[in-house]
Amino acid sequence: MTREVIGMAFILVGIMFDFFGVLGLVRLPDVYNRLQAATKCVTFGSAGILLGVFIIQGFNNFGFKALLGIVFIFLTSPVAAHAIARAAHRSGIPLTKETVVDQYQEDNELKD
Amino acid sequence: MRLLRWFIGLLIIAAFLYGNFFIYDGIILYKLINFILFCALFVLFRVLFGPSPADRIVAVDILGILIVGLLALLGLVFDQSFFMDIGLIWALMSFIASLAFAKILEGRYLDD
Amino acid sequence: MTLQNRSRLFVFIFSFLTWLALTNVRDIEEVVAGLIVAALVTVVAGKFLITSEKSGHILRRIFSAIKYLVKFLWEMMKANLHVAFIVIHPYLPIKPGIVKIKTKLTKDSAITVLTNSITLTPGTLTVDLSPEKNEIYIHWIDVLSTDVGKNTKTIGGKFEKLLTEVFE
Questions:
Q1: What are the residue boundaries of the structural domains of chain C, listed by start?
Q2: Which of A68, B84, C15, C137 is deepest in the core (most CB within 10 A)?
Q3: Which residues in chain B (3-42) have CB-CB distances under 8 A to chain C?
């Protein structure tokens, strides 16, 4: 009983952070800011849901699969975000008007 | 103007939350699954109306992580562990798809 | 035992244990199938796990890794609250920009872990690594300064010392 209550609390917190990340994806101005908010919050939120499922299920088949899912998400999602950000910058998608500094662009121009 | 838009968004979210958690009559897990589907609606907005291709790639990547949490909750509802198998495979495939999309966006091809 | 063979042994044991955790074993056939699959994985990708000799005692490195994990989870918690605050604020208080920091780490695995942690901690996202592998370009949602030395201390400094103990 207590295990289910604790697991449910983890699931609730995870879903709340999922929602904040998705809200950032809709509200923020350019692709890099969207990537930041969405990657952080949705990774944390989905990991929270899987941890809650693991706590409810305990050490059986389902629980181990949920734990493995947490490891997958934590390893893969920052790498995907990094690849997308680099590809977006190289293909020339502009930063938003509020940007104050872009040292990457400066260094690339220095090299050419 | 901006404040007005913020307020309209707040009203929509509050209406959804009230309808989902106080009017809709189902077990708590169904309500949480509805909440995740509502988040996926926001992501689909970004997929449909994203101004640049990079925005669409980000949205598809985020949708892949969101689905893993959804599948874990579905497995909890039906008490079947094979949903988590689908989740693990989905996470890996969406990671590979994001990397491939990023590479094509950058102007290179897959055997590069 | 050479380095490659030790790496293959670790991969074999690790993938076999993962198989045992994922299938609830009832018969001997499932164990045999797991052995075959683990051997296949080892043949294809066995030599990439351990690629260089590490110095330092194993227990001290495990202790540093645990300390690093706790610090990383705490920073991640702060990052999520920070993003939540920005997103529900009506005027979106952001001041984005791309800055450059330097790193002293040399091993590829250490740099990978450092960049992944930078992506998941408050307000920062790794964009690219310079070809000489000593400078990291970071998209920062709330730029405080544009000075390279100061940014190195603010963004990378909290993880770099612990990662040096773990990986090198």
A1: 3-48, 58-167
A2: B84
A3: 3, 6
